[in-house]
Structure formats: structure tokens, C-alpha cells
Amino acid sequence: MPQRNISVAVLYNHIGKDEYEDLRKVDAASLDFEPEYPIHVATAKEEYQAIVEALQAEDFHAQAINMRDDPSRLQSVLRRDPPDVIFNLVELFHDDPWLESAVAAIFDLYCIPYTGSPPFSLTLCRRKGLTKQVLLQNSVATPRFRVLKTPKVPRRHGLRYPLIVKPSREDASAGVEQDSVVVDFSQLTVRVGEMFERFDPPILIEEFIEGKELHVSVLGNNPPQVLPIIEFDFSELPEDHPSIITYDMKWNPLSLAYHKVHSRCPAQLAKRVEQRVKKHALEAYLVTSCRDYARIDMRLSKNNKPYVLEVNPNPDLTEGVSLMESAEAAGLSFSKTLRKIVDFALERRTE
């Protein structure tokens, strides 16, 4: 009797219109600059479908399921015909990213293996200040920082300029903009005030590390594998733009900055420096209890000292981008990488 294919539920939660659908109506010729990259990027639904099709190519019985902010939809799937594994792509619930970990906890209650990090890691890494304390307690370098619960900034804050100001409990570079890097107390107080007006507290201020921006992806568990490092080239940015990855650079193809920053993988680093960076990334992955896959955002100072900025469990899996760019540099195709992630989850299956 032929063996049945492993069933994979590619689970996501999406309600409302996808802003990238509106981009289909924009003519690239209408922009006041010539875009280097396509402005018509894949919608969330298209990206989920691409993952389904890649898993099907790896002989999994995969289907996409949208929770639509309705827990009963999830419960019906888990009770009626539970999949062998859930490919967890849920990032928020009822428009609240803090409920991301609660959804993962439901999978644990039903004893169904799922891809990615557990609730503890998802919750910890959303709190940037707490994550940095965990890193420091485990001797993983991270820029010196302060967490502000009110807009009042002490003049003697103990940090060295330049500083970068950003929300402490957001992800996807929300709130990170050209003006996020400040060079004196006057700019600091203005920027902090703006952040408190736009985002919930606390607000994080940390020393800005002049040097290289690196993304280091980690894949697997026993043992985890550090993939080839991505380095970003900021040389085409205007002189007044700091060398940082902003929200627009990541997500807004109608902005000039989106087209002026380029990735290089593998990064051009001396072997000893590369090993040091990978060691710090692996330690950050382990001490924050990440699982299966994650991306560690880092800065490399001008004297080649690595600093961990953030730990990102369950990062973006768009083909050819970020973690997947690193996987390709390691000789792993899109579908093979997804297969590995599913296999990691299946190893936790209880008979």
C-alpha cells in the first residue's frame, strides 16, 4: 500500500485589503525616479501560495488556510482533520502582533507540531529591551541602550552619540526612518517625542554602531546551521541618509530608498571576522530559544566588532529575499529550504 503524503497546513491570518494590490495600478513611469527593482511585488496571498506550491513540489500534501481572525476556523481544522504539521505564518491576530505567540500556544495545546519558534521566543523577541538584557547576560554584544517609558529624556543618559531611536515593541522596522539616527540632545528629544506620539511605549534609544549592516540567518536545531551572511551596500544613498535599513527600504517599492540599497551574499568579510559574526549570531539564536529558523540583525563596527541589534524568529520567507537569499547562497533551493523547515517540525511529532 503506498505511503500517504505528509499533510501540511500553511496557516496564516489575513483580513482586509492587501496594500500591494493597489501597487498593481501604479505605472513605474509615473515615479520621479527610475526604479531598479520591480514595484509590483507579490501580495501576501501570492507569497503564501508560493510556499504551498513549493511544498507540493517536495511531495507534501499542502494547502493554505486563512484564519480570518476567527479561532473557530482553526479549531475546526485541528479537530476535524488535523494536519501532520502546521507551517506557521501567523504574525498577528485581531490586528494585534502580541497575539502571535498565543496562536502558537494553541498548536501546543493540541499537540500538533508546527514550524518556527515557540511562544516564549516569539514573546521575548518582540520586547527589544528585554531581549538585549538576555543577550548581555549571556555575553552577546549588543549596543548600549536605554528604554524610555515616558517622553522625558534625561540629558545625562549615559550613551554616546550618534544614537538611534526606535519603538521597543514593534517589528519589520516599523518606526525606523531616515531621521531615526540623531547626533545631539536636541535631535534626540524631538525624535523621542515623535516616537511617543506614533507608537506605544516604551521607546528604545541605543548607540548607533558606525560600520556594516549584516543579516545572519540560522537554520535548524541539532545543531543549527548559520547560513551565508548578507551585507548591505548603502553607497547609492544620499549623503544625508544614515546607513540603516528603514521601513521604506524593506516594504515600500515606491520610495527611492527601496531601490538604492543592495544586498551582497555572501558578505565580503575576512575569515576570522566572519567566524566571529557567525558565533555571535548562533549564540543569540540559542539564548533566545529560537527554533527551526531565524534571522539575526547585526552591525559590524569599523574595528570589526559584531553587535546584535535584534533577533527575528519566524522571519520573512519570500523567495530570493533575506533568509531565502542566504539559503540559496548555501546551495539550498526555495523548496528544499521549506522542506527542511517542515522536517524540523516533524521531528517533534509524538506518536
What does this structure look like?
This protein has eleven helices and 13 strands. With 351 residues, it is of the alpha+beta class. It has a domain of 110 residues: Rossmann fold (3-Layer(aba) Sandwich), CATH 3.40.50. A hairpin with a 5-residue loop joins strand 8 and strand 9. Helix 2 crosses helix 11 and helix 4 runs antiparallel to helix 5. The longest helix has 17 residues. The model has no long low-confidence stretch (mean pLDDT 94).
Helix content: 25-40%
Question: Can you tell me the residue ranges where pLDDT is under 50 for at least 5 consecutive residues?
Answer: none
CATH uppermost class of one domain: Alpha Beta
The rounded distance between the terminal residues' Cα atoms is: 20 Å
Question: Pairing-aware structural class of the strands and helices?
Answer: alpha+beta
Give the number of helices. Answer: 11
Overall mean pLDDT stands at 94
* β-strand amount: 15-25%
- Which CATH architecture of one domain is right? 3-Layer(aba) Sandwich
Largest sheet composition: 6 strands, antiparallel
Number of strands: 13
| Radius of gyration, CA atoms, in whole angstroms | 21 Å
CATH topology of one domain: Rossmann fold
From the structure above, extract its key features.
351 residues, 32% helix, four-stranded antiparallel β-sheet, alpha+beta, Rossmann fold, six-stranded antiparallel β-sheet
